[in-house]
Structure formats: structure tokens, C-alpha cells
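tool_log.txt
---
The assistant was asked to compare two proteins side by side. It first ran the structure predictor on the initial sequence, then on the second. Raw inputs and outputs are pasted verbatim so the downstream comparison step can read them without reformatting.
(1)
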Amino acid sequence: MNTYDVAVIGGGIVGSAIARLLGGTALSVALLEARDDVGDGTSKANTAILHTGFDAKPGTLESRLVARGYEMLGAYAEATGIPVERTGALLVAWTQEQLDALPGLRAKAERNGYTACQIVDTAEVYRRVPDLGPGALGGLTVPGESIICTWTTNLALATDAVNRGVTLLRGHRVTEVHVGSDATRLATTAGDVTARWVINAAGLGADALDALFGHDRFTVTPRRGELLVFDKLARPLAPCIVLPVPSSAGKGVLVSPTIYGNVMVGPTAEDLTDRSATGTSEQGLAFLREKGTALMPRLMREEVTATYAGLRAAIGSDDYLIDLDADQRYLLIGGIRSTGLTAGMAIAEHIGELLGKHLDLTPRAGLPEPPRMPNLGEAFERPYQDSAAIAADPEYGRVVCFCERVTKGEIRDALTSVIPPAGLDGLRRRTRAMNGRCQGFYCGARVREIFEKGTQ
């Protein structure tokens, strides 16, 4: 049995980013994912916003890493083709109390190093977002907030890691931990994995894994966030991200465009005990309808094409929990929540600083170039629109999913990629196939046929 220098547990954005960083050194690295695909847990279902960190708690590790991650992921997106739209955001005040809070929010942003926020009056609010419901009293602009593809981000980082030599082990759920004098043996559902150092980036399962190392220091509470996704015809109604003014009850419900050309409303925030409860609820969707009617009544008359829910790993703290145990050669990353999308690469950089005191993390020479990812963004040229690509390869002109304009060439590329999908959900995240208004009703059988032939 091989003994890896480092085993990273969790193939979400944070774990993939760490594996990518460590894969750029001389260390041998394994990335273990409990599910059959990377990014199939918390990382796949969030609001997909590239955050400036303007509203983080000043002075926290989260504040620093979100701000750093915003710059790092922005640059990485340019290099890899991860789609990003710099839409900006607008916090809207609907009550006098919220209006009075805007100067404090701007000051908070400045303490976080973000100085571009501006307070605007009612007329400017409606000039920016004409279809808002009546009653807005003012707003705060956050021009740097952006929308991004969380699926492509996760896949790019994991692909980069594998290209750098990281061993990806899917379907490896850790069930036991045996810490030895020189290495730790991880018993998994697919056999044992041994490593000198172990990094816990297991998201919703981080506390259970931490307990296997003998700790009892935090509990993950799954916080369900449900969302409504509206048809692409609604996109003009949401030219930017519309944020509520935060309160003691949380950040509240937002209206946001998506990178795929839709508009979403959400999320809810419901603490659960079931870590697999990613289904939507009648109460949650009714709540979003009620909030959405007040925020943007015209949007509620548009067609809903999908509803979904994601679980955030809340730990009852307003900061990340990152801790290194040198005696056990073990590093914990907990409580990352939804900001992990933006902060993931900066978290990896921070982990590198901590591990650098114990391991040689000198970058290897001759690393491969970052992977170039397929574009899933509606605002950018897609293969079915690219006459040169179609002339070179007619498969890019053969549309299979008509709602999302996904071609047979794109599905083929996904199936032959460095990390091919293990199932149709993974294919959906790589191509947008079956992600449109019909949700696979018309194209599902054809997509499945191509998938099954391509995986035989």
C-alpha cells in the first residue's frame, strides 16, 4: 500500500483547492471524496456569488481570506475560462431602520478594505433596478460583487490538481482513523488509504471526521437554503444582485441573476439535523414566494424552471475554524459556509502557510498550465454559436439539449475529460444538459443514451 505524504479529505471547492496547491510541490497527495464525483456536496448548491467580503466581520480570518480569495479566484477564472459576470450588487433599504443602517454597513466594508460602496437615494435605486417593488427608501452599491459558475470552479481546481499529479479517489468515505507514529491509516468504503498528514475538508462531515481523530470541539448544523430559479426570459428584471440589508435574523433573501442566464430568489435559512435533506419544502417555497412578491412582484409572474436546496455547514461561529495538530499530523478546516466558493483558493494558501512549517512546499518546476474549462456562461460564446468550432468539428453544431443549447460535442468532451462525470447529475454540472425549463423532459433519454454509450 502506498503511503501518501498528504491525504486531503473532501472534494469540494476547499479540498480541491488545497489538493491543487499541494500537487504543485514534490509531495505525493491523495484527494478523497466520499461521493462519486467532486463538488457533489455543499459546493454544488449555493448562490454562486463571487464576494468582495464587504460584509464580513472585520478582523476575522474569514474576512481576510474572502478578500484575498476574491482576487485569487478572479485571476484564476481569467486563466481557466471559469465564467464570471461583474454585475455588481445593490443593498436595498425598505424601512427607516434599514436606511439608517447603510452608513454603518459602508463603514464596515471600509474596515474590511473595500472602499467602493456608495449610498444612493430612492431614484437611483429604481434607475438601477426598475422592476423592484414599491417602497424602497435607498440603497448601498457594491460594484465588485459578481456572479460565477460554482460547478466549473470546483471542476477546474480538481482537474488542475489531477494534472499536477494528485491521486483522486472518488467513492472513498472515511469510516475509521488509525493514527500511527509515522502515518495515519484511513479506513474507507473503498479500502484503506495511508498518509503521513491528513487534512479534513469534509464540509458537512467535518465534525464527524474530527471526532474520529478524538476531538469534540464543534458540531456542524446543516443549514438548508432553498432557492427558486426563474426562466431566462426573466433575466432583464435582475440587471444586478439585489441584496437585503442584513439583520439579526441573517442576511435574508436576495434576487440575483445567474451565470446561466436565469434569475434566482433565495435562500431560506433553516437549521436541520438531517445532513442529506437537500429536498425543497412547501413552507420554504411559500416563504420565498412571499418575499419575492415584495421584492420584485413582476418576477413572481415569470415561470419557475427549477427549485433546489443546498446545505451550509454552520458551526455556531462567525468565523472559520482552522486548526493544525502537529502531534497527530492533522489539520482541520471547519465552518466554511457559502463564502468558501470565494475564499477557497485563499484558504488553500493559508493552509500552505501552516503546513510549510512542517513540510517542504517548494513549488515544482515545469507545472502544467491551468486547464481551460468549457464555458457554461450564457453571456459568453457557446459552442453552438461558434461557427469556426462547428466547421472544425460538426458535433458542436448538433444540439442535444435545446433548452440550454448543449451540443453532442460538449457532452463528448465531458465524458472524455480528466475527471469524467460518474452519472447524469455530474454531466449536468459539466454541460448544463437537462438544466433548462424542461428539466430533461425532452432531451433526457437522448442525453442518457449518449452518456451510457460514452461510458461503456
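(2)
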Amino acid sequence: MEVETFGIEDKKVDKQLYDYQQEDIKKIFKVIDEHPEHYNLLYQLPTGGGKTVIFSQMVREYIQRTQKKVLILTHRIELCKQTSTMLTDFGVRNKIINSKVKELPDQEDYMCFVAMVETLNNRLNDEKLEMEDIGMVIIDEAHYNSFRKLFKFFEKCFILGVTATPLSSNIKLPMKDNYRELIVGDSIASLIEKGFLAKANTYSYNVGLTSLKVGMNGDYTVKSSEELYTNYSMQEKLLNAYYDKSKGKKTLIFNNGINTSIEVYETFKNAGLPIRHLDNTTGKQDRKEILKWFKHTPGAIVTSVSILTTGFDEPTVETIILNRATKSLTLYFQMIGRGSRILPGKSEFSVLDLGNNLSRFGEWSAPVDWRQIFRAPDFYFENLLSDEEIEREFKYEMPPEIREKFANTEDVDFDVEAAYDKVIKQGLRSKAVLEWSMEQHVKMCVENSEDVFDARLLIKELKDDISSRIKQYSYCISKSTQNYRDWLEEDYSRKLRLAINKEF
């Protein structure tokens, strides 16, 4: 029997917490009991693990135990509303401090407040409101740095940061500078095994990223991403990947740049596919209407720019397409996490990676040493593979539908590095590698054609294979500028056409 506490009512939903959630609440309260104030604790739990449920239960218990007030900080209005609704379901009376709230004459009526960071910061700096008797501050999505400026107002409180990825969004401001310790929750693999998260089936498509530039924030610039991802061949690659692995499935496409997303929208629309575009300039009403359409339309596709990475829950999503590269581990987990909600009949989802992200970060459900990352983020960043290293490791595999067109040829593989080693040992010119490669391509086209016209059509099917071989060759001779590779590719294709003409 619960003792009546001001601000706490009967729960509106009969929500039982899972064992792992209750276990983590115990761990957090143990730290609170040892350090009731002047202490900053960070708690990690994967997207979809139910952190809002956990801290709603925690707020309820904290108020009952201490009779002190709780403030929850979020950085997005959607998260504010979701959190407030969940708290109400848990019987915690709460008030949202948004842009309409200028003062708090009724703060005595509440034991819990949910606030937007910017709004609260403005009010506190203007000295428009003073928050009294706050014992605990909970920071949702704590890896964002916008929260740091509020710490000075709550120095005497117990601060609990909650995040799926305890890695700061700014590499120059590590989280260990603001939090004393980290509690790590259940892993993604464990939550999949227990049936709380869907399993990701990941498909990678090799993309040349060496033209991308890294900006001040440590991630790829929008400008260089737009140049790469809006071009025709990348749009074609994306559409083919969709047809290959996601046709008819409800799909979310993440891009780095509004122009890319609009281009994707046009490409898919012209193909007669049901698609809508969303970005941070989309009006509130339109956004609401698009998300409603997405929810209720089987096989619907939404292409967006970063906007749906947090605070968006749509369990019916069947495929996530990463039509971008990122160096942000947080963003990688957030994007894929949008497909991981389970439903009756949904225990798996697909991830199509067109940004070499899987090679950079590893499988979404692979073990991550969050404590090590929290303690030494610099070490983590230094050990990330560069795009060139990733591309060097990539081995082209001919897709089955293209392989069928070369059915009369026994072996279609060609090891560029092995050929280059042979060339060096024999003291030949390095170009001999490309000549050997071409001999094989000529043989493949001739063996699988009736006439010269058939053979010429087959050259087009070899475009990706040629591109991959040229790239490997350019690494071998340490001359890997994009212009040089483009020239080599054109030259190779021209010579291949001439060689085939001679065969007939």
C-alpha cells in the first residue's frame, strides 16, 4: 500500500516494468542514496529499451522517498509531450515549461516539471522564474551539449543524464568532464534475445566516400554529402537497393542534406513509389499529416534529414535506409534504432547501408564497451577506420542477377592486389594489371554473347566491377585521386570496347 504523497496519484496504466528496468532503477537509487546531491550520474540504455518508462517510475519513487521536486529536461518539443504523457500515466502530476510559460506562479501545485532546454535557460537567465526545492534533474538525450549551460543553476541537485550513446555530440567536450560515473544498461543483443527489440538484417552497398569532407563538428559536411548523394549513379544505386531488399516494405530513408532528400523524393516518385519528404522546414501541420499517412499506409516511404532520429516512434517501420555516411556513433545507433521496435508479427527489420557505416562502426547489435568510450573518447575516435581503409578492404561481389548474364564463364573474380604483387616480382609495368583484368573482361563478354552488339551490352553490366578494380589498382600504385580514377575508368571502358570489336 503506497503512502499518499503530494503530486503523486494512482497510476493510470497498469504498466509492469521488466526485470532489467527494475534492476537498473535499483542501481541508480543506490548511487542517489550514497550521493543525494552535488552528484552527476550518467545512465546508458539502447534506443527502444524504455528509458522514458524507467525515469517515469524513478520520478514517482524519488518524490515519494524524498518529498523533493524533479525537473526533466529535453531538447525537442515532441520529447517534452511524450515524457509528460508518460509521467501522467505513471500518476505523476507534472507541468510542461514551454515558450508559452513566462512565469511559474503555480509551481507549488506540482512536484515535477518537464522543460525544453532553451526555454528554461532563457527564463532562468532573465530571472523570470526561480525553481525551488528541486532535488533531482533528469536530462534526456544527455549526449547533446545544449544541457551544459543549465548545470550552474542546479549545482546542489542530483543530476541524472540518460542516453543510448554516452559519447558527446562535440568531441571537444567529453561527457566524462560532466558526469562522475556511468551505469550501463542491458545491451542491444540481450534486448533482442529477450524479445524486447527486433533483430536487424543489414545489407551493405559499397560507396566511394573519399570525396566527402569532414567539418568542424567532426562529421561529414552537408555540402560534400549533397554533391555525392544527389548524383545520378548514387540515386540509381539507392533505388536499386530499395527494389532489391525493401520493395513494398514500410521504409525510412535518412539523408545528410535537404537537396539530397528532395532528389530522393523525385527519384522514387518518378518510379511510381509512395513517398513523402520531411525536413526541419516542414510545417507542423504538414509534418503531422505526413507521419499519419506513413503510419497508416502499407509500404509507405518517408525520406528525411536527421529530423526523425529522436522522439519518433513508429513500430511499423520495416526498413531503415542509411543514404548517408556519418562519423557519429550516436547518429548511427539512433537511425537504426528507429526500426527496432517490436510488434506482434515483427521480430526483424532490414537496414540498407549506403554510407559504409557498418564497416566504420560494426554491426548495430555488436557488443560496445561503453565504459571505455566514456573514459577515453579520444582513443575511440583515433581508432575509427578511415574511409580509404574501409574502401581498401571492400571486395566487389557480382550480384546474382548480373552473374547469370555471365553464366558461361567459370571464374569472374580478379584479385587486383595479387596481380599487382606478381607484376612487381616480374619487373613489369604496373599497367599490366589492368591489361590482365581486361583480357578476362573481354573473355567474359565474348563467351556470353551471340554477336558484337550483345557483347557491348554486357560491358555496361560490368560498370561496378570495372570501377572496383580501378579503385583497388589506384590504391596499389598510391594514386587514388577521384579525377585520376575517373580518367582510368573511361580509358579502360574505351579499350575494352575496342578489344571486343576485334573479337568479332
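---
observation on (2): The longest helix spans residues 482-503. The first strand starts at residue 39 and ends at 44.
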